[in-house]
Amino acid sequence: MSSNEKRGGALSNKDLANTFRRAIHLNGMNDYPGQMHSGYTYAMMPALKKIYKDDDKKLVDAYERHMNEYFNVTPYVSGLPMGVTLALEEQNAQSEDFDTSTITGVKTALMGPLSAVGDTIFHSTLRVVAVSVAIDLCMQGSFAGPVLFFLIFNIPQVIARWWTLKMGYTMGTRFLDEAASSGIMEKISYAASVIGLAAIGAMTATNVALTTPITFGGAGDTDPTALQALLDGVMPKMLPLALVLICYALLRSKKVGMVPMLFGILAIGVVLSLLGIIG
Amino acid sequence: MFVSALLAGLVVGLCKMDYFFGYCMLNRPIVEGALVGLVLGDVATGTIIGATLEIVFLGSFPIGAAVSPDGGTAAGISTAFAILTGAGAGIGTTFAVPLALIGGFAYVLCKFINNIFAEAMKSQLSHGNDGAARALFWAGSWIGTFGLYFLIGFTAVFFGSTAMEAAVAAIPTNVINALNAAGNLLPAVGFGLLLTMVMDKQLAPWFFVGFIFTAYLGMPTIAVTLLATAAVLLIINARGEKNANLSTVDMEDDNEF
């Protein structure tokens, strides 16, 4: 907050809280030319009105600037570009010859790298960890499972929304430079990947059901040998693991897409099951 | 049936408002299946279908402009089918894939509707009418998303349930069992897709660590997640100490920090 005063910021915590509340709806009206541009403008409107309270022309310019610009970012970290652009809009309000293309430039420059970090942390890790914690309860049919998932995911994301907005407004792009030089981002994404991978490994063992009823031998007075028992003796859940790794290899090679693979596995699964090979 | 379809449609529509409500994962199968189960009076079935489909679509989430299968809407409608026809959770999962495709493509239409409101919003803002722009944003969000997906959910459940019931009755039992067995394989696709996003050579052993603890020792998933968290904290701390000790020497090892 002290740095806020240093920069002569016109926006109070209350104004930022209002932007934060509106930014919840950021992706509410996504469309093709501009993705989240409508939501971005909607979230910025009251703060812009306050920043340009004496200058209707500049206010309309600012509205149009954000409305006409393509914007797309992981919504949970959208506070950072919003905070930074609010600070820049303030500079524009105070000076006569501010180059407004800076505002566009900063927004565009932030989207890519920020989404890369945001998607890793929230979509491919926090969501997966939340699923991994809730999944056993869910499979027992307990409503506590989805509730747990919802809380584990949403408490951190709401905090991240407020924190990035505050940091963006008070520190500007300096925030990203400091985060990069301290190595905190690498640590977080390393930790996120490790935890996510271990969770996926554990879920592979419990949530893919693939066994074989094949037996062999058993002629005369010997009992038939179950293939599944042999496989379990070597490595339990060997077949689910193999299936996941095959899917991974095919998807990674980009020879098969997700949707054809889903249909393909359904078809192959039905045939193998009818033939008595799996099930 | 009308009331059930109405309730299911309302849940499907509201869950698709996920993006409007802060992208809080309402439109994920794990949440949407359970909520449809809740309003139709069978929470357990909804939760199980939702959780199963969550894993099938674990690696599939909308990033950027690409159309991705809508597992959430599929979970909502499949849950309604499973509960209303009494077909059970297994069949519910099997029919979810085509539903997810329909839900995904419908979002393209949703974006076109949104664009009409966005253009109107733009012209209001060029006259400085922020009140009108605000109203247009809300109207666009609710009509384009809630309106469209309510219709999809309601129509699918109202007209689909009877057809579904007839189809399930007509399919022989061994084919139903085969469909169930095949449905159980689908989560592998979700894990596979997610692995393409997070796994690289250096990190790959962690996947096997998680697998081994659960497959051989029967450790619950929560325990594995906690264990991995503890392990990664120890590693990061150890690296920090090592870096501090070697601060005068150039780093020789090739770790990514």
TrEMBL record, chain A:
This is PTS system mannose/fructose/sorbose family transporter subunit IID. It holds the Pfam family EIID-AGA. Keywords: Membrane, Transmembrane, Transmembrane helix. One of its GO terms (cellular component) is plasma membrane. Signal peptide: none annotated. InterPro entries: GatZ_KbaZ_carbometab (IPR050303), PTS_IID_man (IPR004704). GO terms for biological process: phosphoenolpyruvate-dependent sugar phosphotransferase system. The chain crosses the membrane at residues 143-164, 190-214, 234-251, 258-278.
